[in-house]
Write a structure and sequence with these properties.
This protein is an alpha+beta fold and 196 residues long. It has a single domain, classed as Aminopeptidase, CATH 3.40.630. The protein is 37% helix and 32% strand. It contains six helices and eight strands; from the N terminus they run E-E-H-H-H-E-E-E-H-E-H-E-E-H. The chain has helices at residues 19-28, 30-34, 51-67, 113-128, 143-152, 180-194; strands spanning 3-5, 9-12, 71-77, 80-91, 97-104, 133-138, 155-166, 169-179. The chain has an eight-stranded mixed beta sheet, sandwiched between helices. Helix 4 (113-128) crosses helix 6. It is globular. The two termini are 19 Å apart.
Length: 196
C-alpha cells in the first residue's frame, strides 16, 4: 500500500527526507497553487518553510493511514517530486467513500501526470480499500483541475454553493463523483488508457 505505480508516476507517502524537494516545488509554485487552497490560520507555520511542521504533517498523514481515514501520496515522476494526490475524509459504514484532491508542479502541468495519478488512486480506492463513492470538488474557474477530471471522464453532479473557504473567500465547487459500479464498467478502458 505504501507505493502505488502508474505508467509514468509513482505515488508514495511523503517522509521527512522529502522536505527539500517539497520546499523547492512549493516555493516555486506559490502563485500557481495558493489561489486554490485554504489559507493557513494566523500564526500557523507553513510546512514548506518549516522542517518541523513538515515532519508533523508527515506524521499526521501516517496516523491517518493507520486509522484508515486518509491516504496521502506524493506524486513522483522519474524519481522527482512533482505534486500530491490525497484521499481524505474516508468514511466507512453506510457511506464507504472519501474525497480526492490533487495538485501538480506548474512545470509538470499538461503532461497527463495528474490524470494518470487519479486513475492510480481510483484503482487503489475501489479495488484495495473497497470504497463505493469518491468525490472531487473543484472551484469552477480552476480550468487545470477541471481538465484532469474531464480527461478521466468523472461525472459532474452539480455545484455546491459556498462549499469551502479558499484563499479567504467562500467558493462554490463543482462536484465530480465516481462510484464502484462506474469503476467496474470503465476500469479496463481507464487502465488501458492511463496505466498499462
Amino acid at each position: 500500500m505504501s507505493v502505488l505505480t502508474g505508467r509514468r508516476v509513482v505515488l508514495r507517502a511523503l517522509g521527512i527526507g522529502d522536505f527539500a524537494a517539497y520546499q523547492e516545488v512549493r516555493r516555486r509554485n506559490v502563485e500557481w497553487l495558493t489561489k486554490w487552497e485554504p489559507r493557513r490560520l494566523p500564526g500557523q507555520p507553513d510546512p514548506a518553510e518549516s522542517f518541523d511542521t513538515f515532519a508533523a504533517r508527515c506524521s499526521a498523514r501516517q496516523r491517518e493511514r493507520q486509522l484508515g481515514t486518509g491516504f496521502g501520496f506524493g506524486i513522483f515522476v522519474k524519481g522527482a517530486f512533482a505534486g500530491e494526490i490525497n484521499l481524505s475524509a474516508v468514511q466507512r459504514g453506510p457511506m464507504q467513500g472519501g474525497n480526492i484532491g490533487y495538485w501538480v508542479d506548474e512545470a509538470q502541468a499538461g503532461n497527463g501526470y495528474c490524470p494518470e495519478s487519479l486513475v492510480v488512486m481510483l484503482r487503489f480506492a475501489f479495488e484495495d480499500l473497497g470504497l463505493h463513492r469518491l468525490q472531487i470538488s473543484i472551484v469552477p474557474r480552476n480550468q487545470a483541475s477541471r481538465r484532469v477530471v474531464e480527461k478521466v471522464g468523472i461525472r459532474c453532479e452539480g455545484v455546491a454553493v459556498g462549499l469551502l473557504q479558499i484563499n479567504g473567500e467562500w467558493e462554490d465547487h463543482m462536484q465530480f463523483a465516481m462510484v464502484a459500479e462506474d469503476w467496474a464498467m470503465r476500469s479496463t478502458e481507464l487502465l488501458r488508457t492511463w496505466i498499462t
